[in-house]
Design goal:
Number of helices: 10
Number of domains: 2
Oligomer: single chain
Transmembrane segments: 20-40, 157-176, 183-205, 211-232
Shape: elongated
Order of helices and strands: HHHHHHHHHH
Largest sheet: none
Protein name: Cytochrome c
Structural class: mainly alpha
Low-confidence stretches: none
Keywords: Membrane, Transmembrane, Transmembrane helix
Bound molecules: heme C
Helix content: 55-70%
Radius of gyration: 24 Å
Length: 254
Amino acid sequence: MARNHNLNLASQGTSLKALFTGYLVVVAVGYLMAIVQIQLTHGLADGKYGLSIDDIVYSYYGNRSNSLLENKLHGSMKPMATDDERAKIISWVHAGATEEAYENDGIRQIFDAKCIVCHNADAGGAVPDYSDFKQIKERAVVDTGASIAALARVSHIHLFGIAFIFMFVGLIFSLASGVPKPLKVTVISMPYIFLLIDISSWWLTKLNPNFAWFVIIGGGAMALSFAFMWVVSMYEMWILPRYREDNRDALLDE
Ligand code: HEC
């Protein structure tokens, strides 16, 4: 095809468009999975479906009127044992969670039968090993939310991982020719600014529950800029060229 090749998404060849599209589609599915995962962990922190401010507060600041063990048994760990077994564990927690009662009152049997399948030494990461009584005991006292170690781990993974994703999404979007410069610069910078706001708010929420709002605002703004870059890039690659040739230069005609 004898056509002018300009520096914009619409006039790239099909192979580069296929590469960009493949990446955008897979990253979008990854984003959806992340949302499902958030609903299934943090979303259940208050025992109800759907992500709310309470969920964020409980996850980072903790539900300080209760222990993590009890909170989880009302939340994401609810399906893991029968109502009767959960009630037994909870009354054991209320009675002081002693090792003696754990061994002698049938609590260990419940953990062995219902929890150790997942909570064992090989699980690693977010799933503590409950064959070690100390790990259970720590979670039977007042819930102060995510530990500093967990926050540090999840923070650095998110900072590196999400910055990487937005590097490529932003690079593809920077080749879009139909977006005015101020809007483009804003949309490209937004994910980075709000990623920092989001993650620093996890730490701040641990200190003060009011910062939970910034976690929601940060995450929401990141998702919005992702959706905008995604839709515009796809449009300029696949729909715009059907109507006309695009001879603008996305990087130089600013
Ligand atoms: C099917 C696997 C599985 C089973 C069975 C299971 N858990 Fe979990 N548990 C997980 C996963 C995954 C997480 C991390 C995600 C989360 O917090 O929801 C977790 C997290 C927890 C936490 C929070 C740990 C922390 O420090 O953040 C507690 C408390 C907990 N489980 C208690 C239990 C109890 C009590 C049982 C048995 C009645 C149980 N779990 C059975 C998979 C399981």
